Amino acid sequence: MSKQNAYTREELLKCSRGELFGPGNAQLPAPNMLMIDRITHISDTGGRFGKGEIVAELDIHPDLWFFQCHFEGDPVMPGCLGLDAMWQLVGFHLGWLGYQGRGRALGSGEVKFFGQVLPDAKKVTYTIHIKRTINRALTLGIADGSVAVDGREIYTAEGLRVGLFTSTDSF
């Protein structure tokens, strides 16, 4: 695998099939749960803490699956999907760094919502700032993240935690 600094949707779909980091390693979910269309920037330096940064985007259009069911007559992107996208990106970063194992979200600290994604929006931007990466008995990524819609920040999460596991049998 080449360590690129940006990824297209097609490359992210390869990751969802387990073709990017190898079998049994970090994998993104397949559509419809893949909440990212592209990664425009990924690094192991930079960001607020100097330990890595990811910027990714999701194109919004009114026929996205979640607008049909959340909520009827009042369509809005569920906040949990944006939170999941941030976990997806932290796990992707661990795989991109070359760590082995299957990714699992392990929680977060404080999450704040102060805006929404509606069907007439154009683009969601996720920004992840890696705080710490630990590679011992457990590989763990810890990050802070934010979600913006059309350039306006609408929620934040602190202490996003994702682990990589070589076996998930007892998880």
TrEMBL record:
Keyword Protein biosynthesis: no
Catalytic residues (UniProt): 70
GO function terms (MF aspect): (3R)-hydroxyacyl-[acyl-carrier-protein] dehydratase activity; trans-2-decenoyl-acyl-carrier-protein isomerase activity
Record localization: Cytoplasm
Catalytic activity of the protein: a (3R)-hydroxyacyl-[ACP] = a (2E)-enoyl-[ACP] + H2O; (2E)-decenoyl-[ACP] = (3Z)-decenoyl-[ACP]; (3R)-hydroxydecanoyl-[ACP] = (2E)-decenoyl-[ACP] + H2O
Keyword list, A-Z: Cytoplasm, Fatty acid biosynthesis, Fatty acid metabolism, Isomerase, Lipid biosynthesis, Lipid metabolism, Lyase
Pathway: Lipid metabolism; fatty acid biosynthesis
Assigned GO CC terms: cytoplasm
Pfam families tied to this protein: FabA (PF07977)
The family this protein is said to belong to: Belongs to the thioester dehydratase family. FabA subfamily.
Described purpose of this protein according to its UniProt entry: Necessary for the introduction of cis unsaturation into fatty acids. Catalyzes the dehydration of (3R)-3-hydroxydecanoyl-ACP to E-(2)-decenoyl-ACP and then its isomerization to Z-(3)-decenoyl-ACP. Can catalyze the dehydratase reaction for beta-hydroxyacyl-ACPs with saturated chain lengths up to 16:0, being most active on intermediate chain length.
Oligomer and partners: Homodimer.
Protein name: 3-hydroxydecanoyl-[acyl-carrier-protein] dehydratase
Protein species of origin: Halopseudomonas formosensis
